[in-house]
Batch of 4 targets.
Target 1
Amino acid sequence: MTETKTAALEFRNIDILFDRSGRRGAIEAALARLDAGETREEIGRALKVTVGVAGANLAVARGEISVLMGLSGSGKSTLLRAANRLNRPVRGEVRIGNGSAWLDIARCDDETLRELRKTRIAMVFQQFGLLPWRSVRDNVGFGLELRGMAPSIRREIVEEKLALVGLSNWADAQVHELSGGMQQRVGLARAFATDADILLMDEPFSALDPLIRRKLQDELMDLQKRLKKTILFVSHDIDEALKIGSRITIMREGRIIQTGTPDDIALRPVNDYVAEFIRHMNPLPTILASTFMRRFHDLPLRADGMIDGGNIAIGPDARAVRIGDQERVATAHHEWVRGAVCIVPVGMSLGEVIAVRQRSGFPVLVEDEGRLIGLCDDADILQALSGEARHG
Ligand SMILES: Nc1ncnc2c1ncn2[C@@H]1O[C@H](COP(=O)(O)OP(=O)(O)OP(=O)(O)O)[C@@H](O)[C@H]1O
């Protein structure tokens, strides 16, 4: 399996059950019923055992942001918390790469687990998990302090991480003096300070108001470009998931329904349940030109040899374009001049394509690594807006 090679963290056949009955053998009985195909609800009713996660398989690749998405109670946090054994699976493995070998977090000894939590896996919570009576600096350095790191070295690392999240001037402030968004930055800095390569983020931004939330999402994506951590991120917001996730996993009633890239989820939902999530997303920042443009190789040629794009014709050298009986130049959108047709990159979002289309007044051409490959006209944009995006 190629995924295994590059995975930093891998869940294999994970079942996590919670016994509310206190009866001996309840978990084993629940597993037997689970294997016989009974639902979470049936098992809960019959045995007072909650199925938190069932049969979950997920590989999180090194350096990616993998988002767990689903409604409340779908098992996202339960699965996430198995990654540092805050929840212990009753069956299955949680594998983490350790040099050239794998370690099973679900079964390793306590000493190894403590070491992993200190050095490899850090967690950022929704409610920040900060110590309000400590200063910002002392919160960021908390994990290092626990590790027994000397104050002078600790201070250096803490300053560096505070600068990373833009809080250098707040180092001596008390945490309660900070706004929610700033407190969450302290949480991020603390996670970064440990140098953990795996970050677990449980709805870290959901307590924040929408503007701050979007800003922190942008900041996280920026930081991630530089730091290249492996991030497992829980969210119940499809827009957030599609924005920050390199891969998204949709969960329902403890089970994984679909794992895929944002495009897979948005354009190729495996069933109505996933499609329903997608119907509620905001397509403007999410859908990319690559997915709703018309590709040149799907378009007919005109008698004069130009590609027939309806309202626009594109010459064989692909820079000479014709609208009606007028020749136009095609130019990169950031070098736009009046009367020109704009060329945008294939990764441009629907919202931005609309803005460019609006400004130039012409259909928009799409390029990939310097080569023109397609176009977006009003009909393509409307189809994308109405959820009928073209498949890439
Ligand atoms: N420690 C626990 N003890 C008993 N039941 C639990 C425990 N943790 C989770 N559960 C149950 O497991 C199921 C999945 O919960 P989980 O918190 O993982 O869902 P979630 O998708 O993260 O939801 P939310 O978005 O509301 O946090 C729920 O039915 C929950 O009540």
Target 2
Amino acid sequence: MDAGTKLRNTIGHDAGPATLSGPNLGICGSIVTAFVFGPIPVDHSRIDRVSFPIDGRRYTVDQATCQSTAQQPGRFRIGGPINRSALMPSDPNETVYDIRGLTKIYPMGEVEVHALRGVNLRIPESEFVVLLGPSGSGKSTLLNIMGGLDVPTDGEVRYRDLDMTRADANRLTWFRRESVGFVFQFYNLIPSLTARENVSLVTDIATDPMTAEEALDIVGLSDRLDHFPSQLSGGQQQRVAIARAIAKRPDVLLCDEPTGALDAHTGITVLEAISNINAELGTTTAVITHNAAIGQIADRIVSMRDGVIVDETRNSTKAPVSSMSW
Ligand SMILES: Nc1ncnc2c1ncn2[C@@H]1O[C@H](COP(=O)(O)OP(=O)(O)OP(=O)(O)O)[C@@H](O)[C@H]1O
């Protein structure tokens, strides 16, 4: 089972996203042993399906297939041995984000800044979407709302079965903590901590993390575990930041100009890491950029201007990062 294996509930509008506990997962012949965790006081009986990737392919089982449920302090557990034949390939069209009529107005004294003016966007399972547009077009505002870092003025944002516009603060905190990995232009690593220690800050508090070593391996930094940020190149520091973002096994990865501070060569190593995570772990991924070339490696390019989506282009085939013209 690959390091990114995870489980999460896909139903129950106030149910917390639940992740698979790595050590409790194993495949033995035709049997998959898996446990799903979620926060109490969520009513876990309302969860009727769980889905997870195995070797880059996503599968779903219904809860009836799971053979045991148990309460643990602070969280519930559903799981048990699942016959492999009960695993159904997930519908690749399942909706991860459904955004409708999204507006965001920032009051600035006497004036109002209309950052988003009615954005409609649906992002399906495991899609890699690039958000492109000039400065001030609303890309970061949209990504911040998708990540639960900001709230809309109007409109609807649904993440799976979670209505983000109506969810209470606890539910949104859980969503941010368990379901979303953020990567920003500036790496925000702690200079006095090694790469491993920077990633461990997250693995120490997440419900079901991979190890810092596993996360750093995924971004190709197994040989830099004990390096401090000052001993790493910009691209390597950004990859540590990506490892930190994925160590909790997020369902979605939101990247705001992850290569904005990097030259072409180091930028490509960062894009390779992001692209691999999307392909191999099935993590739904949104990347903001000003660089139209990055659109070549995505499934879809969404172009924004003045707070609205002005164009959407689907790539029939994603270009490998190695063939990208920067
Ligand atoms: N917290 C805020 N308060 C007031 N105005 C804001 C705030 N955040 C963003 N804005 C304004 O909203 C508009 C959209 O900003 P946003 O950062 O989303 O654009 P962007 O496309 O990400 O730009 P860039 O590519 O330069 O990062 C801009 O006019 C910006 O000045």
Target 3
Amino acid sequence: MVDTGLTREQVIDALRPVQDPEIGRSLVDLGMIKDVAIEGGRVHVHVELTTPACPLRGRIETDVRNAVTALPGVSEVSVQFSARVRAAGSGMPDRQPLPGVKNTIAVASGKGGVGKSTVAVNLAIALAQDGASVGLLDADVYGPSIPIMMGVSHRPTMRDGKIVPLDAFGVKVMSVGFILDPEKALIWRGPLVSQLISQFLSDVDWGELDYLVIDLPPGTGDAQLTLVQRIPLSGAVIVTTPQDVALADAVKGLAMFREVKTTILGIIENMSYFVCPHCGGRSEIFGFGGGERTATRHDVPLLGQIPLEGSIRQGGDIGFPIVVSDPDSAPAVAFREAARQAAARLAVEAARKPRRPRIMLRPTT
Ligand SMILES: Nc1ncnc2c1ncn2[C@@H]1O[C@H](COP(=O)(O)OP(=O)(O)OP(=O)(O)O)[C@@H](O)[C@H]1O
């Protein structure tokens, strides 16, 4: 083997200018370069991403390759990826994070029926498909639809005094629908809703999760406000259709999350357009571009535009969501991209947080 004289330090120095494109800081400073191995002219770099759902993995790989290839004597560069999700915490210091759960993502809508649960289900599965450990909590006491959409309905069991969530498509699922009599759901008032959901957060054995996606009840009333004040939320995704009445309510949702200092990860515009399966013509049934305009006006990202499609409705009805049933379809790709963008935003939030200083214990003499 040819000795090029190349050292680990030289490789790390070459990697210093390479940034995580989302976070805008050096991979080296962020502790994302886990290992560098050199064998003659061959260099192997192990990068630890901040989420397995990283939307810019390809770009990071290219930048790492280019930086290392530029060093004298390098003939081949291989890049290996792993991921460790970091906790973004919640906006309010008094809301304690859930033990074992790194990030909680609320999926909310100002208006009912805009596809909030559909989005929650597909986002959660998309994150799990990328390799994250994911839970999905259906907190929509007024119409828990997650059991049907995820194709799970039996009552969960108990283990060591905790509720064991059900598993569907690699996601741990818990729903008020597993426990409540659907006939009684409507009489739940704000404080009771919040008490029940708090109990679900603490009494369910979620284990170690990178992301817990929470499908909130629609609206911005008393019940929703009490909930978002009590749950330690790392971020919120707002679902809307492009229709004016939905957008007006989505703006109320943005205001609610801002009031409780929860990061808004972005807006998802659902039912954005319809492509006729017969003639291929495109119709903008609920208007067009409203989600984008609202996102721009309120300075939040637009995470995606999901078309109105029969297969999405059907996937929900039969408990076989579109990211599983037809992963290459346009809506599935849009859901996956939205999930990755949301995960990337959380990684940025986590990186902004000052690291807790290590406490050095004095040796006892
Ligand atoms: N993009 C889409 N294309 C076709 N159908 C959709 C789409 N998004 C949602 N749907 C369908 O619209 C209906 C309402 O969706 P969903 O239950 O997800 O809305 P929601 O906002 O959670 O409602 P709620 O306010 O009752 O909680 C469901 O039947 C669902 O399958």
Target 4
Amino acid sequence: MNKFSVVIAGGGSTYTPGIVTMLLDNLDQFPIRKLKLYDNDEERQRVIGEALEIVLRENAPEIEYAFTTDPDEAFTDVDFCFAHIRTGKYKMRELDEKIPLKHGVVGQETCGPGGIAYGMRSIGDMIELIDIMEKYSPDCWMLNYSNPAAIVAEACRVLRPKAKVLNICDMPVGTLRRMSQIIGKQPKDLDVRYFGLNHFGWWTSIKDKEGHEYLPEIRDYVAKHGYLTQVEVDTQHMDQSWQETHKKAKDLLAVDPRFLPNTYLKYYFYPDYVVEHSDIHYTRANEVIDGREKEVFSAAERIVEKGTAKNESFSAGSHATFIVDLARAIAYNTHERMVMIVENNGAIANFDDDAMVEVPCIVGTDGPEPLSQGKIPEFERALMYQQVTVEKLVVKAYVEGSYQKLWQALTLSKTVPSAKVAKALLDDLIEANKEYWPELH
Ligand SMILES: NC(=O)c1ccc[n+]([C@@H]2O[C@H](COP(=O)([O-])OP(=O)(O)OC[C@H]3O[C@@H](n4cnc5c(N)ncnc54)[C@H](O)[C@@H]3O)[C@@H](O)[C@H]2O)c1
Ligand SMILES: O=P(O)(O)OC[C@H]1O[C@H](O[C@H]2[C@H](O)[C@@H](O)[C@@H](O)O[C@@H]2CO)[C@H](O)[C@@H](O)[C@@H]1O
Ligand SMILES: [Mn+2]
């Protein structure tokens, strides 16, 4: 069996140890000959890199391994790049969340002004990463889950339309896992129909392989409890803020009970509630810095100190398993059905062809083939049109260096109450992001 060479970009990410653990657990499904970690932060890369060196030595010494900040070393001779970079790291995520709150607006990693600011930071780095990949390994596929995925995907469509980049999000997988618990099934037993944008969508059908429809049963549960199942799916989702988000899905469902909502709609349907329940002094970024980041980095440091990983384990979560499924689909033409972010081109019949939408696709050696989701109702369509236009304006603002277009993007966001607030916010965001954004005029 062919063995693959993989580089993880954002090798110092909190997700890297979980992903490597999951790759090692699945070597029979996806054999690896070479594994490299690449990050532009030497210190973060060193801690995670040294710990994983010990993990590999103890579990899979046959895999050639390296960690580096050198793009040439990282990207030479690779078949797959798993990309999860965070331009500006948690320091900037914290500002993305806190600056909007100062203006009474939702402060969130990927939604509203925070997502727009993060998008403006990520586009340049993502395009650079694609160019590096194509320079050193022209046949390599990039499986990208760097956020904000909607804006990054639109930037790839506009700036690198031919690149072998697959944009994905694990929220549909994570929520399907919760749904499967509700009905006592496994995610692999179920096929979904879904339409929307990234972090902005709805399930219209959840069927088993015999064709039985479970949506009504799941809806009855979600109407009472949201997606709260109390079974530990992903460790960080036991955090208070995620528990509240899963619970809040019941109020999202109430707005249109025909479909099962993505939890991220909370920031668009109930921004007032979100702001009221936010603490400007302690946002999700702080929770992650004090939680996941500390846990992962302390575990890595303990491994290095002891010289063994025998008593440590990293949790993989649904985020990680999704990636092996996708890599296998490309490598072995498995025709796996997966929800992905792709150019619409008719998949949603009454939506723009050039919109980056999130729909189920059949994935094989040539990439994803979107499945037709038919026509969508006016309410969802109008919401999606507003949001996709925000995302397109951000990319245009980046490309043209346009202050005006970014102001329009913020004004159009459903999370922002007026052009006045949008302008004040924009000026604060420009100041905070001057190290990262192109100059706007
Ligand atoms: N699509 C999804 O569903 C999904 C799910 C989870 C996380 N994510 C995303 O994955 C990314 C990582 O998340 P995290 O919480 O582990 O963040 P993190 O800050 O722990 O890790 C990101 C790493 O990327 C590195 N980095 C930044 N710019 C880089 C560049 N240009 N080249 C190489 N490395 C670079 C940073 O130094 C850091 O070590 C984020 O973008 C996050 O939003 C996406
Ligand atoms: O606040 P964070 O950093 O914990 O999470 C933000 C990310 O949340 C989603 O990803 C989840 C995923 O849904 C879940 O199944 C599991 O794997 O954990 C992930 C991280 O919590 C979302 O899809 C990402 O885009 C966000 O970055
Ligand atoms: Mn996501």
